[in-house]
Design brief:
About 5% of the residues lie in helices and about 50% in strands. The longest helix is centred in the N-terminal third of the chain and has 8 residues.
């Protein structure tokens, strides 16, 4: 199978949310505030601080020690509105007068989200869990007969969380999901700070169809825990459905989840992995 070659060609949906807690408390160890729009974005760049050192034994290179540090996210944005500038830099903003007051900083951590578009038109979705914004650089020059103008350069320094995520068993710096290979619903990815633990809602359950001479209207192989799941089963031409069972989370739920005659599978709230087995016999 040949490898598909794609490049980055676009970026949008630059958002942020304040990190309210980040500790190892089970369940509430990582929480954030509301997601806010940061700014339109012209360019996003990322560099990762790394270091390596080779150790020698018996006059030969024997091992290499590699360390990974902070991520530096460079953002090219238009002139930020003063309220947003005050929010991300920990400065004072007077809503009554609309004035930005450039005094002492109140350091805060934020999560940063954005999308990267690929040349095939699909997107790569990103949430960086924790970092701080630097004071943005700005330059302005005299107006002339040309069309020159100046934007702002904003730097976000991303670090790992203190929180240990359940799914990975360790701390994380970011979550990256490629639309081309993901089976999850990304329509709500930026409604909250999506993490590896809440990706797809409360988590995902697998859906396995074991069907003999039968078809299903729902070919998706996963379902969101806590959400509804539905499908319609039908027999192939010349066959009649003879037996169907629906098992969820190891429990037979056929009596409540399947309606014979219509072929409807309907689960109000998914609680675990689903196995739908069905057999159709030759029509007499």
């Amino acid at each position: 199978m040949g490898q598909v070659v794609e490049e980055f060609r676009g970026t949008d949906n630059l958002v942020y949310a304040e990190v309210l807690t980040d500790n190892n408390t089970i369940g509430e160890g990582y929480t954030t505030g509301a997601v806010k729009v940061l700014a339109p974005v012209a360019e996003i760049g990322k560099t990762v601080e790394t270091a390596s050192d080779t150790k020698y034994y018996d006059n030969k290179p024997a091992l290499t020690i590699i360390a990974e540090g902070a991520d530096t996210i460079s953002l090219t944005v238009p002139a930020l509105d003063l309220e947003t500038l005050a929010d991300i830099t920990g400065k004072e903003y007077d809503s009554a007068t609309g004035a930005f007051m450039d005094g002492e900083r109140d350091p805060k951590y934020f999560a940063l989200g954005y999308r990267l578009r690929l040349t095939d038109g699909t997107y790569r979705y990103v949430w960086r869990y924790k970092g701080s914004f630097g004071i943005p650089d700005e330059t302005s020059q005299t107006e002339n007969a040309g069309t020159d103008s100046n934007n702002q350069q904003l730097t976000f320094t991303g670090i790992s969380t203190m929180h240990i995520f359940t799914k990975t068993g360790n701390s994380q710096k970011a979550l990256v999901v490629d639309e081309r290979t993901s089976d999850v619903d990304l329509s709500t990815f930026f409604d909250q700070v999506t993490t590896c633990d809440n990706l797809g809602g409360s988590g995902l359950a697998t859906v396995t169809n074991v069907l003999t001479h039968m078809n299903t209207s729902n070919s998706v192989h996963s379902a969101t825990v806590g959400a509804a799941y539905s499908a319609t089963l039908s027999a192939e031409e010349g066959y009649t459905v003879s037996d169907v069972t629906v098992v969820m989370n190891g429990v037979d739920v056929t009596s409540t989840a399947y309606t014979a005659g219509t072929g409807a599978v309907s689960i109000a709230s998914v609680t675990g992995n689903i196995v739908i087995a069905g057999t159709a016999a030759v029509t007499q």
